[in-house]
Amino acid sequence: MSLIEIKNLDFSYNETKKVIKNISFDIKKGDYVTIVGHNGSGKSTLARLLIGLLEAKSGSIKIDGLELNEENVYKIREKIGIVFQNPDNQFIGSTVRDDIAFGLENHMIPQGDMDDIINKYAKEVGLEELLDKEPTALSGGQKQRVAIAGVLAMNPDIIIFDEATSMLDPRGKKDIKDIMAKLHGDGSFTIISITHDIEEVLQSSDCIVLNQGEIFMHDKPSEVFKHADELRKIELDIPFNLKLKEALKKEHIKLKGSEIDEMVEELWRLHSNH
After folding, report:
1. Chain centroid to CA 221: how far?
2. Which among 16, 18, 86 is positioned nearest to 46, based on CA atoms?
3. Could you give the CA distance from residue 104 to residue 113 in angstroms, rounded to a whole number?
4. pTM of this prediction?
């Protein structure tokens, strides 16, 4: 059984233009799904529909067998954690420790248990040395890691990353993507990442491409990126390593690997043999 079931979903902010048009897809427990598309394709609207911040005009959303409606919305939100785009807008506590504790305090978790949970998830995201730091002392990437720790502490089934790396420098982006890959590898969470980062798509198990509110493609990343020309028509690109492989193929150099390290090694071997 799928953990998330979306059927014939429609949404519009006004009566004239639909932002989400008859979308249907399923996500299984433990999947890591990236949702990509150009600005205005409906990605972030879809994330807000999934957590009940917006109400669909028609169609249905089921999370773990529960229909998303007024009666079930709070039960469903307990199953979902979300990390937003701007790290500054998510920091509530006066220190890292206080911020991770915020949701736990609202759930009346005993202090002793709370300390154990805070320490566990601070370590999980590499912040155990920064628990008493104030937000002004943290980089954007570190603030996003605090947000992730706060979400993990609530033990959700699903984590939605809504453009969570888009405001970070390259080091911060890499740190967050590494955490996402690790969480997926652990198998405890289902991950949905709304992203502009085409490189991130490669580490996901499934990719949904949105275009003008409709599903343009839905497949494994390796299959999606075989359609480079079609993706470019809707203003999406392909990852650098696949571009490089494509360019080398035109020069009649065929490589087996797709990862940069593998490709460099193959090219070095080819060069050494000449």
Report:
1. 14
2. 18
3. 10
4. 0.87
Question: What is the C-alpha separation between 219 and 191, in angstroms, rounded?
Answer: 16
Domains in the chain (CATH in brackets) are: 1-79+160-167+190-238 (3.40.50.300), 239-274 (no CATH)
Q: What angle do CA 27, 73, 187 make, to 5 degrees?
A: 35
Structure tokens at 214: 């409709």
Residue type at 213 in one-letter notation? G
C-alpha–C-alpha distance, residues 157 and 159, integer Å: 7
Whose structure tokens read 């709370």? 114
Q: Are 33 and 191 in contact (CB under 8 A)?
A: yes
User: DSSP of 4-34, one letter per residue?
Assistant: EEEEEEEEESSSS-EEEEEEEEEE-TT-EEE
> Which pLDDT belongs to residue 40?
82
Exposure class string for 107-144: b at 16+ Cβ within 10 A, else e: eebeeeebeebbeebbebbebeebbeeebeebebbbbb
Please give the angle made by the CA atoms of 212, 159 and 28, to the nearest 5 degrees: 75
Confidence grade of residue 108 (pLDDT, cut at 50, 70, 90)? confident
Strands 206-211 and 32-36: parallel
Q: CA–CA separation, 176 vs 74, rounded Å?
A: 28
Q: Which whole number is the average pLDDT over 83-88? A: 85
Instruction: Supply the DSSP string of 113-155, one letter for each residue.
Output: HHHHHHHHHHHHTT-TT-TT--GGGS-HHHHHHHHHHHHHHT-
